[in-house]
UniProtKB/TrEMBL annotation:
<dbReference type="Pfam" id="PF01071">
    <property type="entry name" value="GARS_A"/>
</dbReference>
<dbReference type="InterPro" id="IPR037123">
    <property type="entry name" value="PRibGlycinamide_synth_C_sf"/>
</dbReference>
<dbReference type="InterPro" id="IPR020561">
    <property type="entry name" value="PRibGlycinamid_synth_ATP-grasp"/>
</dbReference>
<keyword id="KW-0479">Metal-binding</keyword>
<dbReference type="InterPro" id="IPR016185">
    <property type="entry name" value="PreATP-grasp_dom_sf"/>
</dbReference>
<dbReference type="InterPro" id="IPR013815">
    <property type="entry name" value="ATP_grasp_subdomain_1"/>
</dbReference>
<dbReference type="InterPro" id="IPR011761">
    <property type="entry name" value="ATP-grasp"/>
</dbReference>
<keyword id="KW-0067">ATP-binding</keyword>
<dbReference type="GO" id="GO:0004637">
    <property type="term" value="F:phosphoribosylamine-glycine ligase activity"/>
</dbReference>
<dbReference type="InterPro" id="IPR020559">
    <property type="entry name" value="PRibGlycinamide_synth_CS"/>
</dbReference>
<dbReference type="Pfam" id="PF02843">
    <property type="entry name" value="GARS_C"/>
</dbReference>
<keyword id="KW-0464">Manganese</keyword>
<dbReference type="InterPro" id="IPR020562">
    <property type="entry name" value="PRibGlycinamide_synth_N"/>
</dbReference>
<keyword id="KW-0547">Nucleotide-binding</keyword>
<dbReference type="GO" id="GO:0009113">
    <property type="term" value="P:purine nucleobase biosynthetic process"/>
</dbReference>
<dbReference type="GO" id="GO:0006189">
    <property type="term" value="P:'de novo' IMP biosynthetic process"/>
</dbReference>
<comment type="pathway">
    <text>Purine metabolism; IMP biosynthesis via de novo pathway; N(1)-(5-phospho-D-ribosyl)glycinamide from 5-phospho-alpha-D-ribose 1-diphosphate: step 2/2.</text>
</comment>
Amino acid sequence: MKVLIVGSGGREHAIAWKVAQSERVDKIYCAPGNAGIEEYAECVNIGAMEFDKLTEFAVAEGIDLTVVGMDDPLVGGIVNAFEEKGLRVFGPRQLAAMIEGSKAFSKDLMKKYHIPTAAYENFDDPQKALEYLETAKMPIVLKADGLALGKGVLICNTLEEAKDGVKTIMEDKQFGSAGNRMVIEEFMTGREVSVLCFCDGTHVVPMTSAQDHKRAEDGDQGLNTGGMGTFSPSPFYTPEIAAFCEENIYKPTMAAMKAEGRDFVGILFVGLMLTEDGPKVLEYNARFGDPEAQVVLPRMKTDIIDVFEACIDGRLDEIQLEFEDNAAVCVVLASAGYPVKYDKGFVIDGLDTFKEHDGYYCFHAGTKRTEAGIVTNGGRVLGVTAKGSDLKEARANAYKATEWVRFDNKYMRHDIGKAIDEA
């Protein structure tokens, strides 16, 4: 098989690495890719939103399967564009990708079909949002409706903060057109868990659990980011909770999307809050999480191509999904100043060390190959992942491996998976 992967981040590197393990695959392309993905794939200089060029390339090269990693092209309708050309593609169609593309849509869906989530209201008028806040209980959560690179969520502890948040999202448009509408929802407390699910439109098969760390600084302080690190599995996601979520969240979500004429085929990412009142949905995404993919895929034993194809063909119920009985931790190495302002172009040393150690991986997020070598080319630069027999060992291994990598302005959190020690 020839496989094309669409995207350029750490998630796409993890997907390429996993696809490369399949004996069914002869050749991998990635558009546009990055310096790390080059190890497994031929990188093609076509942007993820250039649908015409991507489909032309897929036809010309005889691509057997395209895997879309990123949210923007999915919400933009890339799957529809590929299917119109008779090409096999893994990911939700545009109508189904709206589950991530609009938080207002996904909240209304959950309300209509009685899927547990936080109480909320939708607003497209900032003045109405401000009036609502005067009667609301603090703390409160403000969410830009559209795609915002994982950053369009503000947790506000006071009324003043919340009012400033409305201005930031809806008037200053800090998250662009994503802030044309806004969701205001109750603040939930509990443990957060991420569960990625394979879906074929009818059947849903959850993968192993993970937990992300969104805030930029230790102790869950600072601004929201695209993710500063993850661990898998979550010790808080017990078999009892998993069974509850499957019956009350995952299956009902699939059924709800089907009932709405939006059959969901691809990866459904469910962000959960384990509250005192039981698990509730924080958010849905329509693709692999980043950096969740970097800890979930290394633990997956099943050939991922078999799973992708079963999803496309509506026979996911025939797949036995298996994961290793171990743990993985990913620590993101970022550029100092991320997610606001940071410099690029620093040479990265020590990457070859990972080739000498089994169970250690370095997934490239923001890197570029130059004459000087591989250099930093983004806010999140690398995802250093390590496995271990349990979470404590995996965490120790991951932090040990972060010392192998050197570049100017290197920044990371030092408490990824610290909750493990408290469990």
